[in-house]
């Protein structure tokens, strides 16, 4: 079983191994696009030979909703072009906030990669350990990648609507409490305030410390306080299907098996006026 997290020291030690490949999966939080250029930030400093796994670009652009899963074939083509080979041990990282690396971890696994880990502490932790970063674009030989999509990992709006109404699984929303409780506007314009009826709130960043998950005992307490039962199925949701994966990561680390993603998340639910909303 591939480790969910690897340390900067471990990665440094194994960096040159042929069987290992590092991917930069940083991503801007919603609302930051106007003031920051993620591509420029990537070019200004990334781990050596780590291509940019751009979650924004790797999403389904035919969808009206942000960050929806792409089709398997287009994902495979994109991975081959980046130089990613599916049979390698893939290590993904983000800025160090554990905001987007989990989504990359989840996407790669959903498309058939078996060995995927997250760099604990991300780019920030790597630099803090005194290790070198590279600048400029990364160009690698074409990778070998055949994507097979595991659709069972994803729930659609009709599934979630039914479960919200009739039960059968717990809907866990990873947004901040003030968004969940309809106290502030969503960072994406045009969305209603509130949450899916009968959902529970576990803000994603409450599960994280220093770019990795909190210790298991603390995670168990946080889920218990939110009313989440670890022996029952969970559907994770958030603003756009990215930070929900931090909840999936945490539950997976605790051995919870039946955990799926509502990929549309609030970007879909909150954009419609024909669905029930709790405030």
TrEMBL record:
Keyword DNA-binding in annotation: no
Rhodanese domain: residues covered: 16-135, 165-278
The keyword Heme is assigned to this record: no
Entries under Gene3D superfamilies matching the protein: Rhodanese-like domain
Keyword field: Repeat, Transferase
Signal peptide start and end residues: none
Domain of life of the organism encoding this protein: Bacteria
A Pfam family per the record: Rhodanese
PANTHER family, per the entry: SULFURTRANSFERASE (PTHR11364:SF27), THIOSULFATE SULFERTANSFERASE (PTHR11364)
Full protein name: Sulfurtransferase
Species: Pantoea endophytica
